[in-house]
Amino acid sequence: MEDQIDQSKQEMDHLMDGSRSIIFGKYEMGRLLGQGTFAKVYYSRDIKNSESVAIKVINKDHVKREGMMEQIIREISIMRLVRHPNIVEIKEVMATKQKIFVVMEYVKGGELFAKVANGKLKEDVARKYFQQLISA
């Protein structure tokens, strides 16, 4: 297991250089989709079945410094239990000493927050999103 962790760390270092990498022998990491305070999200591909996934890479040290580790663990635990067509599914969670990798269903179109931040939505589009939010 320690060898796999060391290998994944080397693979992540390689990824940060801007090239593609295979992590945990399972996923080909691709382009950066977005980033937040504690994590970066990458478009990725399951090498076994070619399924598109998104992988959130969380920096453990940053989360610990901010005192958010329990909240992150709780959020992941809850999200693993949720099954709903309008909520992104967590497929797998893996970790190294420095990073947490949350493998999620890939959803085309980006985040709703980004769409709203870009300006007003047309009424029919807003209604569709609102119905999905209410359903979830």
List keywords for this structure.
136 residues; alpha+beta; Phosphorylase Kinase, domain 1; 2 domains; 6 strands; 30% strand; protein serine/threonine kinase activity
What does this structure look like?
The chain has 136 residues and is an alpha+beta fold. It has 2 domains: 2-105, Phosphorylase Kinase, domain 1; 109-136, no CATH class. 39% of the residues lie in helices and 30% in strands. The chain has 5 helices and 6 strands. The protein has a 6-stranded antiparallel sheet with strand order 1-2-3-4-6-5, sandwiched between helices. Residues 1-5 have low confidence and may be disordered.
Topology:
Blueprint: H1 2-16, E1 21-23, E2 27-35, E3 39-46, E4 52-59, H2 60-65, H3 69-81, E5 90-95, E6 99-105, H4 112-117, H5 123-135
Quick one: overall form?
A: globular
Taken as a percent bin, the fraction of beta residues is 25-35%
Taken together, the total number of domains comes to 2
- CATH T-level fold name of the largest domain: Phosphorylase Kinase, domain 1
> Topology as H/E string?
HEEEEHHEEHH
Q: Considering the protein shown, what is the CATH homologous superfamily of the largest domain?
A: Phosphorylase Kinase, domain 1
Strand order of the largest sheet: 1-2-3-4-6-5
Class derived from helix and strand content: alpha+beta
Mean pLDDT: 82
Q: Largest sheet, if any?
A: 6 strands, antiparallel
CATH class of the largest domain: Alpha Beta
Helix content: 25-40%
